[in-house]
Design a protein that fits this description.
The protein is an alpha+beta fold. It has a single domain, classed as YggU-like (Conserved Hypothetical Protein Mth637, Chain: A, 2-Layer Sandwich), CATH 3.30.1200. The protein has one helix and five strands. The chain is globular, with a radius of gyration of 11 Å.
């Protein structure tokens, strides 16, 4: 199972969805704005559901204020 993966987040999207590009790369569209960490929180919830793990087991390790992030699964 992967432990780290790359995510590009598009905030203020018209719909929430995930595109999986393989090689641990994802494009995540979130309805939340990129303010007050709202987009990150929605993205982590969506990725947790997509991967079948609790979102509390995910954390952004690089790019918390950027569109491009590295997310880690915490065991």
């Amino acid at each position: 199972m992967l432990s780290k993966f790359n995510v590009h987040v598009k905030a203020n999207a018209s719909e929430s969805k995930i595109e999986d590009f393989g090689d641990n790369r994802y494009l995540v569209y979130v309805k939340s704005p990129a303010e007050n960490n709202e987009a990150n929180i929605e993205m982590l919830k969506m990725m947790g559901k997509h991967l079948g793990i609790p979102s509390t087991k995910l954390r952004v390790v690089v790019g918390a204020t950027s569109k491009d992030k590295i997310v880690e699964i915490v065991y």
